Amino acid sequence: MIDKNNEADITDFRRRLLVWFEANQRPLPWRATYNPYHVWISEIMGQQTQMDRVVQYFNRWIEQFPNVAAVARASEQSILKAWEGLGYYSRARNIQRAAQQMQEQYGGHIPSDHKALLELPGIGPYTAAAILSIAFNLPFPLKDANVERVFARLADIDRPIKQSAIQKRIGAMAEALLEPELPRFYNQALMELGALICTPKKPACELCPVHMHCQALKKDTVEFRPLPNDKQKKIEIIMACTILHIDGLFFVQQRMADDIWGGLWEFPGGRLEEGEQPLEAARRELAEETGYQAGDLEFFKTVVHHYTRYRVTLHGFLAAMKTKPEKPILSAAQDYAWVSLTGLSDYPYPAGHRMLVAALQETAFPEIR
Ligand code: SF4
């Protein structure tokens, strides 16, 4: 392991890492210019999302919203639609709120000040440090899951990395090893090493530019580092919804603004109550949320979506209305619409409902089209 009191050791570590990064970095779109707006969007999108998806969404986003001003003046609906599929929609709403604040306070620029960044919605200590170091080349260390894993192996840390004492230790390592002149490249190099070489499973130690500094490699403990945290079991959530339709139009409603998926659209539905069957729940939820009584419900499809802490199973039932009903009561929604099968694509949905929409559009419904 690098001795943090040994300057030569530290310099050797930084140099090897930087040389490797120069030759091996992926050509990610925000690396072309290091435009602070691009770096900010890439960092928010990159939270809990795989890189190939981030690149895909990032390119589309920048085309639609080329700068802070464009995000600030966009409709919430277009922001949510552009984000659809990335999940954790509060991130998208916070981007827009932060953009509006930047537009008002900083003339549409991203501030290069730590305190000012932390006052913006959705920007916490990690994102602030990422923007400052990557966009502005300021000496702020970064510590994400990739960096934690690399450090746990370099120092052969034999305790779970989420323990607070270990977090402090890794934080101190990150501070001590940071290259103060080139934080932009050093921070990315460390994260890139974790993403490409020092991967969670089967790290490519034979290609690692800093293998001579690695204690886990020396002690043959690489496959046991980092030590896993106590596994949290996923919480199971079972839901049911009704897909109402009449004359080729489908009923969707928009969730309340302060809900978990506020502003997104869905088919009326909710969680099963104790002892309830999916079909009963779909019928009950429809009546509670809209005031409508469905006739015969026909099973359509069950979809499953995994979130970090939850596994959601959603059962969808079709219900054909004979006559177009009155205005719904909307006890759990702020708006509603009757939409054609193709028009359903214009609305943003939580993952499960989006899967049902896709399945509906793939299904031949001679009686609906
Ligand atoms: S030698 Fe292997 S385990 Fe050690 S830092 Fe490099 S890739 Fe990771």
In short:
The chain has 369 residues and is α+β, with helices and mostly antiparallel strands.
Which terms would index this structure?
369 residues, alpha+beta, Endonuclease III, domain 1, Nucleoside Triphosphate Pyrophosphohydrolase, 7-stranded mixed β-sheet, 14 helices, 43% helix, 14% strand, elongated, binds iron/sulfur cluster
Q: What class do helices, strands and sheet pairing give?
A: alpha+beta
Distance between the termini: 66 Å
Number of beta-strand segments? 7
For the largest beta-sheet, the strand count, sense and barrel status come to: 7 strands, mixed
Strand content: 5-15%
CATH topology of the largest domain: Endonuclease III, domain 1
**Are there runs of 5+ residues with pLDDT below 50, and where?**
none
- Mean model confidence by pLDDT: 92
| CATH class descriptor name of the largest domain | Mainly Alpha
Instruction: Please tell me the CATH architecture of the largest domain by its name.
Output: Orthogonal Bundle
Q: Helix count, per DSSP?
A: 14
**What's the SSE pattern?**
HHHHHHHHHHHHEEEEHEEEH
Ligands (ions, cofactors included)? iron/sulfur cluster
What is the overall shape?
Answer: elongated
How many structural domains in the coordinates? 2
* Alpha carbon gyration radius: 25 Å
Q: CATH superfamily of the largest domain, called what? A: Hypothetical protein, domain 2
Helix content, binned percent: 40-55%
